[in-house]
Amino acid sequence: MERMILKAWDEADCARGHAAALRILERVGVEVRDEKGLALYEKAGARVEHNRVRIPAGLVEQALASAPRAFPLKGRDGDRAFDLDVRDGPVYFGSGSDTLYLLDPKTGERRRGTLADIEAGVSLIERLPNYDFVMSLWLPEDAPLGVVELVQLQAMLTYTRKPIVVSSARGGDAMREQVEMAAACGAPADTLACLNMSSPSLILDATCVEKTTSCAELGVPMVLETGISLGTTGPASEQTSAAVGHAEVMAVLVLHQFVSPGAPFIYAAGISQLDMRSTVDLYHSAEGGLGSHLQLNLAQHLSLPTFDYAGYSDAKCHDEQCVGEIMMSVQSGAECGGTLLHDMGYLESGMSCTFEGLIMADEFAGYTRRSLQTVPSDESVFLIDEVDEVGPGGSHLGRPLTRKACRELYRSKLSDGSNYSQWRASGSRTFGDRLRDRTAELLAPAPEPVVDAQAVSDMATLVEQARSRMAAGA
């Protein structure tokens, strides 16, 4: 979806924000907790003192000059219908990764996610039309912790052809194993992207450095996301926290492009806010959303593709708050113009993901695609002949154009558009009733693999080999 975009900062504002981030990198720098990373920064021309790295503006500009502004993230279907054109412009929707809990769709019980839930969720996303990419959804309780990211990826490769964004608590070894697993399904490295996170603010640990270098070397598109919370890990100032987050992304970009100039890189925006009353780091806060919007504008100022949030809620169940926040965040995510919008279906401030949330977010994303698409105004779109043929006061209801257009209109499967009498006659069913029925309908079929039995066997072998290596290393 090419989109109309809402901007909080104009180009002049963004130029000042970028300049502030450069001053932070030169004056404050970043702490690098990895010897290889320190050596690479020093070789690139940064000033290294103990584990503090201060980066001159010239290195940032050099990295920006080599970073690609567009690249593909490919699906695994034959006609390339799932391929994504990753650049600043299109908007794509996707799930999130590694939540702990879900609400069981049959019992309503809050429980830990399992591998079977991942398989069902990925299979669901394969069939939902408004999801463009997939992440792992849950951290499965029943998977071996040491190779959990490989078990998650095995489920994703088995049950979807859509592009995949992986995550891992491990560093470079995990990325190489994930690329090998994708190859077992005939998938090259550009069918995956890797989420990399730096936390706390302005600190790059060994895992972050290893992921950065391995993604650059392997040609896997890398997403770099910061972990700034207003007033705790970042200043209680949206503008300053946006500049700090921008500085952190630029610091990693310098390392990434030094290792492999031209390697694909995605800028992730993400500023939250700690609720001092509950000590919960809120997803859906006005100030955190504004800070993320400022970060997005800084990335868009540099024409970099981005990674941002949509389709989430801080609610604990599928109540009115949940519906409103999922709808608002899908709409605002698209309006702000993030390239890859993730965490659709998240509840409980990122602690849980639910099947019902995934389905709701898909419905609202479909509405958003239609309502926020760019609208051309060339001569061909003004159907003056049609108006002339019907004439003043005439009806367009029976016209061929109307019949064709009506078949293409967006129609929600959850919202009710009937009149009151029709609604009463159909049982006075609420949004919640329709959501439960739709969830049961979509989850009824067993997950269906999209790869052959040999690929499934090959992936299982790779997981077992990784477990053996880790056991031998321990």
Question: What does this protein structure show overall?
Answer:
This protein is of the alpha/beta class. Helix content is 46%, strand content 15%. The protein is built from 16 helices and 20 strands. The protein has helices at 11-27, 35-44, 57-66, 115-127, 148-159, 172-184, 206-218, 238-259, 286-301, 320-336, 355-371, 384-390, 400-408, 420-425, 431-443, 453-473, and strands at 30-33, 47-49, 52-54, 70-73, 84-87, 92-93, 101-103, 110-112, 164-166, 192-198, 203-205, 222-226, 228-230, 265-268, 271-275, 280-282, 306-309, 340-342, 346-347, 352-353. The protein has a seven-stranded parallel β-sheet. It has a four-stranded mixed β-sheet with strand order 2-3-1-11. Strand 7 (101-103) and strand 8 form a beta hairpin. Helix 5 packs antiparallel against helix 16 (453-473), helix 6 (172-184) runs antiparallel to helix 16 (453-473) and helix 8 crosses helix 9. The N and C termini lie far apart (48 Å). The mean pLDDT is 94.
